[in-house]
Design goal:
Blueprint: E1 10-13, H1 21-26, E2 36-41, H2 49-52, E3 60-64, H3 72-87, E4 96-101, H4 103-115, E5 127-128, E6 138-142, E7 154-158, E8 163-167, E9 175-178, H5 188-206, H6 213-231, H7 245-263, H8 269-281, H9 285-293, H10 301-313, H11 328-339, H12 342-349, H13 353-356, H14 359-368
Parallel strand pairs: 1-9, 2-3, 2-4, 4-6, 5-8, 6-9
Antiparallel strand pairs: 7-8
Bound molecules: nicotinamide-adenine-dinucleotide and zinc ion.
Nicotinamide-adenine-dinucleotide binds near residues 70 and 154.
Length: about 375
């Protein structure tokens, strides 16, 4: 069976395109009393961006904190906050939920838009196609590029038991606003880590057994853009512009194309291990991927070689010796989290992956990190 997958139906791209958000939302505002919910990364609470958000008096603006990656508990709390706000008015659902930030804030917006129309806790829906009712109209606006969360059909959440996304066609954004100006002030190390998420998506997709012409076309373009962004100098052909600004445009498109590539294939060994690092040790996805990828020469020799060149060029120092002092119980949990992700292992190593990857092998990899 071929997957019939849903893509984002409305996309706006370009420097300054964020200024059109008010017009885009105006078409979705149902009547005078109705409202929009803005979930915005609190890193912007004191920034110039704050003044540019088209919030109306009746709207609900919530600054979200992503020091920890999104948890089901936090999603439930935010959803309840919106419900309380609804009850203080006409009790109608909001006209839309708008997420502004990196992958974490965008995922929170996706999750809240789903949970407003589906009963229970978000933890009940971690898995594949468990969502029954369409979400509230939702918009994603990235301020970091690399995760591909803007195009994916998942919102990645850590729940009481596991780190697993709510994967469904309803999860996909109805609209995304890709404005490269919004990513231009991200801290250099964070930009690198999130950018490497995209690079690793491409390596894992292009070297996976699920690869097909669709994923290859998107993955090859995305990896080429990553190379231009992270390896070229300004003096090189296809290198960044004088002020470096076009590298933001390229990185934003790389993230989108990388997301499209894995949408029709899968990620691999690095992502499986990174989920374990994130669940037990709390590392954010981008940095967790970088930590794991550096030890995966055995699986992705060329990718790891090129990744090290990028790290060197951008003077990145990764956290090391993570396993020192870690309890055996935690190590076992990391292995559990990684092993649950069967499609990732199968994509990376083929249907016989269970013969290649054992608990011992994963432990050994973690212990080297
Ligand atoms: P992030 O959203 O976790 O943000 C990392 C840090 O950067 C945070 O402190 C944030 O406040 C800050 N930040 C964001 N934009 C900024 C800006 N422009 N300037 C300054 N600081 C800024 O980082 P991320 O790498 O974009 O996202 C990682 C998250 O995305 C994880 O929760 C991961 O699970 C999720 N993810 C989701 C998907 C998906 O398909 N849904 C795919 C991959 C990863
Ligand atoms: Zn990723």
């Amino acid at each position: 069976m071929f997957r019939n997958f849903k893509v984002v139906p409305h996309i706006i791209f370009g420097r300054g395109s964020f200024n059109q958000l008010d017009d885009i939302l105006a078409e979705k505002r149902k009547d005078v009393g109705s409202f929009m919910v803005f979930l915005i990364d609190d890193v912007f609470s004191e920034s110039g961006l704050k003044e540019r958000i088209p919030v109306k008096d009746q709207d609900l603006l919530i600054w979200v904190n992503v020091n920890d990656e999104p948890k089901t508990k936090y999603v439930d709390k935010l959803t309840n906050k919106v419900r309380t706000y609804m009850e203080s008015g006409s009790n109608d659902l909001p006209d839309g939920v708008i997420g502004i930030g990196g992958g974490s804030a965008m995922d929170l917006a996706k999750a809240v838009s789903l949970m407003l129309t589906n009963p229970g806790s978000s933890a009940d829906y971690q898995g594949w196609d468990l969502i029954k009712n369409p979400a509230v109209y939702h918009v994603g606006i990235p301020t970091l590029s690399g995760t591909g969360a803007e195009v994916s059909r998942t919102t990645v959440l850590s729940g009481p038991e596991k780190k697993l996304g709510i994967n469904s066609d309803y999860t996909v954004f109805d609209q995304i606003v890709l404005d490269p100006e919004l990513i231009s002030n991200a801290p250099a190390d964070q930009r690198f880590y999130t950018g490497m998420d995209c690079y690793i998506h491409c390596v894992e997709s292009l070297n996976g057994t699920y690869l097909n012409a669709f994923s290859k076309a998107y993955g090859e373009k995305a990896i080429e853009l990553c190379r231009e962004v992270f390896l070229k100098d300004r003096s090189d052909k296809n290198g960044p512009d004088k002020d470096g600004s076009d590298s933001d445009d390229k990185l934003m498109m790389a993230s989108y194309f990388g997301g499209m590539s894995i949408a029709y294939s899968q990620v691999g060994v690095c992502h499986a291990l990174s989920y374990g690092l994130s669940f037990v040790l709390g590392f954010h996805h981008g940095v967790g991927n970088c930590i794991a990828f550096d030890y995966l020469e055995e699986y992705y020799p060329e990718g790891v070689y090129e990744f090290r060149k990028m790290m060197k060029k951008h003077k990145i120092d990764l956290p090391r010796n993570l396993a020192a002092g870690i309890e055996n119980k935690e190590l076992e949990k990391m292995v559990d989290v990684a092993l649950v992700l069967e499609p990732l292992w199968e994509n990376a190593l083929g249907t016989g992956w269970k013969k290649i990857i054992t608990r011992e092998k994963i432990k050994e990899l973690y212990q080297r990190m």
